[in-house]
Amino acid sequence: MISNRSILKHILTICSHILFWIVIYYFYAYFLGYGSSNTKYVNKFSGFLMPVTILVSYFFVYYLIPNYLLTKKYVYFILYSIYTFILSVFIILVSILYGLVYSEGFKEMGTVPLTKTLPFIILGVYFVVLIFVSFSLIMYNYKSIVSNENLKNKILETQLQIKDQELRFLKMQIHPHFLFNSLNTIYGFALNKKDEAPEMILKLSNLLDYILYQIEKPQVFLMDEINHLQDYVSLEKMRFHDTLEVETTVNISSKNIQIAPMLLIPFVENAFKHGDIINGSLYVSIQIKTDNNKLFFEIENTSIKENKTNNGIGLENIAKRLKMLYPNSHTLETFQTDSFFKVKLTIDNLKQFKNE
Q1: I want to staple 258 with a disulfide (CB 3.0 to 4.6 A). Which of 93, 219, 231, 246 is the partner?
Q2: What gap in Å lies between CA 262 and CA 174, rounded to an integer?
Q3: pTM for this one?
Q4: Would strands 282-291 and 294-302 be described as parallel, antiparallel, or unpaired?
Q5: Alpha helices in 60-117 (DSSP H)
């Protein structure tokens, strides 16, 4: 269904074309009759030239240019342009002959009907054609630029939507591992009727609240991420008992620094999931500090190199998230020695917001 706006646009286009050709008619009358006193003949002859001018102009704009010039068929465009020129010159000659034979002004002896020769008349016609074609090409170029900008905006919008969906997908991949490990631990404690079970349930409840309600936010306070990271470590300590040794160092310059949610916890989860017990214990070292809106995060765990082919899909997902969230403003490095696995992460230009 054609909209009112589209109809109005077509009406305005038609009106502008009509106005243009009215102006051209008076241009012909002035151009051909300058210095002539026979205005009646000049006006009639100007009318004879209008059809050929309009036909040639529209033929160029709506057929030759779209089908040959814009499609880079330059040879055909030149050939058809030459044919059009020859045919139009013939029609102009016929128009002049018709005007000389049938015009009343020709019968008035001693009156000069026209002040321009045939070459000037042809030049005048093609001057008008050139103006019309040039203006049409300018409008076409303008519309192409606008169309390309709109297309770029749509592509950018689509890319942002895809990026958002990818981030959601990567976030959702984090949850199952974490929940499975935590629920497994609580289940084991409940079977053995240990006193730590209620405390574990409370900590898990806090973590679930963080995941469900904070994960959808683009940014969370770094201290909130650290607090929930420590809750996760507490859960793991209950699960490992005496076989776990964790050292945590936190040095935050400002409580207003924000990061993407669930960005650090997966590194910790990965350390417990893929770490190895060496000499009777699993050792995990966590260091978090900030300096001038720059985050330094380092985690190290005992890990036997010969037993490792990779450290899980979790690190790959986090690496993808970092590329999307902090492009060109982060570094992520991993190191594997004979007995340790280390991850070093730095993020520049972190935002700060007051925690109200």
Answers
A1: 219
A2: 8
A3: 0.54
A4: antiparallel
A5: 74-102
